[in-house]
Amino acid sequence: MKRSRINDIIAQSDDMMRSFGFVLPPWAYWTPDEFKARAGEAAAVIEARNGWDITDYGAGDFDKMGLFLFTLRNGRLADLQRGGGMCYAEKLLISKQDQLSPMHTHVIKAEDIINRGGATLVVELFGSDADGHFDETTGGTVWCDGLQRDYGPGEKLRLAPGESVTLMPGDWHAFWGEGGDVLIGEVSTVNDDETDNIFREPIGRFANIQEDAAPTHLLVSDYRNWLD
């Protein structure tokens, strides 16, 4: 992805979030130079990989397959492993109309996916085999707004604004906006985007960036190169 396109997506996404009453924390708007200057102060933000995250999954066609994310807070895996402390994470996402977030599951993370506003969010579901691998013949059980719901293989949930689904490890899922763009909330256990996204197809989690312009704001995938 070109950096200039990423800058545009950040600006457009911020406008959409604000239109639904969501305002990001002040550090979200730091310039790269300000982030460098305040890296010590922001050590917990950097370590948790909180911040802007835009991906085309390495496929090079963001409008067809991609996702905007902003990680607001993220806990510590060590706390999750010992069963106490900061064991949670929270994100805002934007899924554009017909923009696929491809089929994947998680080994550790359980997550609530919430339609926070906009169009309909479609979530396609499959279950796992005995080894946790994708199984096109298997369904499972999820919770929609806290109510139990069994699903068949390939079933598509359609979530209107205010509706949600709880997904557990082993629930394979893909999603996209139907009829327009969707603002999504994600509340989950500790999030590790580097190792805990298991995709059905061999694709990447992060975009390959062409530096055709200076970044307006750093992405979480920029932290190692810009701040170390």
Automatic annotation (TrEMBL):
It comes from the Bacteria. Keywords: Carbohydrate metabolism, Isomerase, Manganese, Metal-binding. CDD domains: cupin_EcSI. Its EC number is 5.3.1.15. The keyword Manganese applies. Its cofactor is Mn(2+). It holds the Pfam family Lyx_isomer. It is an enzyme of class 5 (isomerase). GO terms for molecular function: D-lyxose ketol-isomerase activity; metal ion binding. Coiled coil: none annotated. It catalyses: D-lyxose = D-xylulose. The keyword Metal-binding applies. Belongs to the D-lyxose ketol-isomerase family. This is D-lyxose ketol-isomerase. It comes from Octadecabacter arcticus 238.
